[in-house]
Structure prediction request, 517 residues.
Amino acid sequence: MITTTELHLSASAKELKKIPSDALVIAVAKGKDGPVLLENPLPAKASRALGDSLEVLGITGAADEVRRLPGLAETGADSLVLSGVGPLEDGKPLTEEVLRRTAGAAVRQLAGLDTVVIALPARTVEAATAVAEGAALGAYTYDGHKSRLKADGSVSSTPEKTAVNTVIVHTDAADESSLTPAFKRAAVLGKNVNTTRSLVNQPPSHLYPETFAQAAKDLTRGLPIKVTVMDEKRLERDGYGGILGVGKGSSRPPRMVKVEYSPAKSAVHLALVGKGITFDSGGLSLKPPAGMQTMKLDMAGAAVVLSTLLAVAELGLPAKVTAWLCLAENMPSGTAQRPEDVMSIYGGRTVEVLNTDAEGRLVLADGLAAASEEAPDAIIDIATLTGAQMIALGTRVSGVMGDDGVRDAVKAAADRAGEQFWPMPLPEELRPSLESQVADIANIGERNGGMMTAAVFLREFVGQVDGEKIPWAHLDIAGPAFNEGSAYGYTPKAGTGVGVRTLLAYVEDVLARTVRG
Prediction:
């Protein structure tokens, strides 16, 4: 059961003494000549004394540096927290993303406390909202399935630290009317990013196609959302050969889950298709053991499209959004698909499977073809698709490919949301490498530029409306979806939730352009 909680967010411009809390967060920067205490609501004398003590306390102001000190009599907080913003640029205000990361780092590292006041330099609605977003993204913990049993069999009396429950942003913009809906959006966004993280963090013993489908039903309960679960019998009847082929080797049959939010007055229809491989062993093209250790992450794309739709519905945006969750477990067995098998994708196109570890594009092909039948205004698919993404862009920058208009709009949305996406081309010379002698197309082609080759494959399954191809983009989040290193900023270890912020911003941007048009 995936449970989600929404951070309680509010704003205040009151004197600090009148805002009781467990901790008060202020900012310190890494200046040219040492640490610098930034603008804060502390009384001038206390602020000067604290600023003069930074070096003695060993505080540098580096990004992610969060230091707790005893509370000051001038505040209503039990402790004072200094959160580093990193290098200070002369004369320039902190960017919204720096504010997000600074607030997120503090809230993440203050897990176990209930109420935190954040007093970063945030005089405007935009700056205060960035602080709120960072706090909502940082307020996440996941203790999974720990039993709390000690070695002697007794139960530990020390509970796991829970995420911060309430954040009050101290800002001069507290009384601005636009701040309330902005904070509501921040809380909803944070909750659904954290839903994605928890889905990704679930072990494959507990999250597999059937239970993922049930989670979709549970998470949408109480919202004006329709969920349709297609089991293996319906998938076979309707010709979803990609998902069926990938799932053939597992004892846990695949599912296609269609999630629909369709408000009465929708201005646009967008389709989101997510790769949902709940565990990827590689199939008969078996991965080495070390390569399987994080493969529960391979359903992140499906988690992202589900969570994005949840956010759209909770915010009541006037956009019809349909999410397609392409769910399968890729396992080797006597019933698994073999290299050189030919599968019929939904709609009839055939694929020669040359490598069973290139399975994500097979399930996405079904999803793209099915989504195309509904003639949406645009289709976006998102997937932890290729190791080539990490070779090209590393573990923190995602790739976006597709039609120029959608690709560029996604990049603009990502920039606004604070996520790192980079546009990549779809070179035409890659398409011949996907030719098959026995089928319409092969599932692997040119190894060099493999991220782009995979996108060229997916493009083949995007349909047309009135002879015009449906606008489409493909997002590869293979590296950024799962943080194998240390936590940083508002990003925890393991599932990161990357993509939800970008896709929500994209939906909002499309609506804004539609209204202007």
Q: What stands out?
A: The CA atoms of residues 268 and 319 lie 5 Å apart. The longest helix spans residues 179-201. The mean pLDDT is 96.
